[in-house]
Amino acid sequence: GNLYVSERLDREELCGESASCSVSFEALVHNPLNVFHVDVSIQDVNDNDPLFLQDSFHLEINEFTSPGARFAVGMAEDADVGSNSLQGYELETNRYFAVEVKETKEGSKFAELVLRRALDRESENSLRLVLIALDGGDPPRSGTAQLWINVTDANDNPPVFSQDRYRASLREDTPPGSKVLNVSASDADTGTNAHITYGFGKMPGKVLQKFVMDAKRGTITLKEGLDFEDTRGYTLLVEARDGGGLVAHCKVEVEVLDVNDNAPEITILSLSSPVPEDAPSGTVVALLNVHDPDSGENGEVSCELSGEAPLSIVASSGGSYKVNNMPGIPILNVSATDPDLGRNAHLSYTLLQGDTTVGHLFSINRENGTLYLLTSLDHEDQVEFSMMVQVQDGGFPPLATNVSVSVFVTDVNDNAPTVLYPHPNSTLTYPDVVAPGTPAGHVVTKVVAVDADAGYNAWISYTLLQATDPSLFSVGLHNGDIFTARQLREDDAPQHTLVILLKDHGEPVLSTTATVSISVAEMVKEVLTDLTDVAPANDPRKHVTFYLILAVILVSAAFFITMLSVGIFKCYKWRQSKELFNSSRSTTYRTPGPFHHIDAVRGGLTPPNFYHQVYLTTDSRQSDLLCKKPFTSSPLGSRQSTIRNGEPGLYHQIVGTASRLPAPTE
């Protein structure tokens, strides 16, 4: 009487989606014969995965969609029932979306996407997520589907120019149709929202008449000719507009460059004609005004008179020129003669314009050859002027001769001395340091100055004008050395300020002053400590003193090594010459007497005032003649002593060629 399952049961096939499933049949029993009604209830097991109707879902969501928006993504199906059926959905972790489970009136569960934060197509233009459907079995079974979310563009980005300001330069003779420049803008959007058109903003009609814009390429082209004298520059307002209506702006500055396209304009302001023949030199005959609309070098003009007339032209103020009958100072007369007669002997003088500056400074009378100076000269600017004067006769063909004329500018005292050290404009002056107990005559520092004049006008004398203690320091009259006038004491003031007066020797005398600061300190460290308190922390010159001291030490060391090397070399040469002298056959000849000596060169006696030593080598063609001044008084010795006081003797060394001399007879 056992009832067996003859084949595998499939509840879903037998009962479908029914919540309960059973199979009913009749069982016949023999002996005794009887019929039984059998009802078999089939229970569900979790043997089916939830399934989505499609493997992937595609959504297009605009980036302007507000957070909180919901999107239905379909429903999964599970053949199981009860707790084994579909229970919910899960979404792959992401920044933008979450999933919620919704249930229909019929009891079906479907997934709904919820936007948690705003999308940005420019940062992420698409998303790929995995949607998971879960049942309630143990263990649970699941099914997946791919979510493809395409973020559609919204016009949330305006165009952006590559530059906020463009600059271009055009010559005023640039022909119309020439390209000025090309502006460029970009838009982070896509599609029609990124389509950019270019144009001009609101500008005066005068500007819009000169330029034209290519709406697609952003190329600005010159439409009409330019005129620097009318307008020297233009500022263009350019805008870029995308397909969504957003606009960006930039400026284009066009500079118009001047071209020398205008001739000077001469206006006669005043004219005196006729001119009396007895009009004095310097009389103004005419007043002219010259104007050139161009600018810079193109607007600079120079005026010259052509033709034969005893007149010259002189620049005045405001572009005006005066015509003078030979103004200025006569400095030279160039004269020539011609042996011809009549017109052939009529001479005219011309200043050849080899140097343009000469024509502005000098002029010549065509009839008599008198050279005039038209303006003042500056010796410091130029000392000498050279020019060519041509004299030409009136014959046909005319004959001419050129002569060179040089004008030398003498100096006048028009420059005051200039102080180089200490610098007069220094904001922070480091004082010179001298230790207490320094003896008198010690040089502490030096005032260095120059004078741009020449000769006697540039000689500078130094005097002490003002001092904290006038008895402590003195200044050298001609060298500017500042030295101690007496020995420094412990009770002397620690800080001293000296005002030095510098005067040249010109007429009139020009002068200036220099201020020198001196500190009396036992050690330099004390002064440096004081300077640290007052000197700014960021002073770029705070290491100057150290580098100056280091430079002095290096220069002194180099000088000492050089002098030592020269001394060693001289000693070596002296020993070499002495050995050569001892080994040679030539001798030094002297008389045995104390007062008279043999003159080896002339073969005679020398006066007692001089003492000659002649060293002649055996084979050398050169000899040294050493003449020593006597210690005794003599007219010659007294004249030589005036050259420099305190010098006991004056030595002259004469080096020349000489042949071997025969030994003199006693």
TrEMBL record:
This is PCDGK protein. InterPro entries: Cadherin-like_dom, Cadherin-like_sf, Cadherin_C, Cadherin_CS, Cadherin_N, Protocadherin/Cadherin-CA. It is found in: Cell membrane. It comes from Tachuris rubrigastra. Residues 1-52, 53-161, 162-266, 324-419, 426-538 form the Cadherin domain. It is a single-pass type I membrane protein. Its main location: membrane. Coiled coil: none annotated. SUPFAM superfamilies: Cadherin-like. The chain crosses the membrane at residues 546-569. GO terms for molecular function: calcium ion binding. One of its GO terms (biological process) is homophilic cell adhesion via plasma membrane adhesion molecules. Keywords: Calcium, Cell adhesion, Cell membrane, Glycoprotein, Membrane, Repeat, Signal, Transmembrane, Transmembrane helix. One of its GO terms (cellular component) is plasma membrane. Pfam families: Cadherin, Cadherin_2, Cadherin_C_2.
